[in-house]
Amino acid sequence: MICLIDHNLKGHALVFFGAIASQGWLDIVSIQFVTFDELDLPTDSDDRVVWRLAQQKQMVLLTANRSMKGKDSLEQVMREESTDKSLPVITISNADRLLNDPDYRERCVESLIEIALSLDSYRGARRVFIP
Length: 131
Known about the structure:
By secondary structure, the protein is an alpha/beta fold. It is built from five helices and five strands.
């Protein structure tokens, strides 16, 4: 599973990926984190552009706070363009807790691993909140 890391989660992603790796999950499941920079995607890209790119490249968008209002909000884009083949958007319910609470971080890791192990069953789900 390839996760496109929302631009405001770069630091969070380092901690999150470190937790995944330190628990040995990368020996069991393939998970890769990709940043906006690696895709030459401007950080001010609107949600429609981000979602479409993630779908085109078969990446799961990992976010914490994408917009839910407006014609190009992530919520509106998913309503208009999501199909039963679309990959979900994974939303960290509380990004600050991911950084500061090891138990919460572990629950987020477990949730992400569950999704990665059965990704096809999450297609069409639009948004999945973790933990």
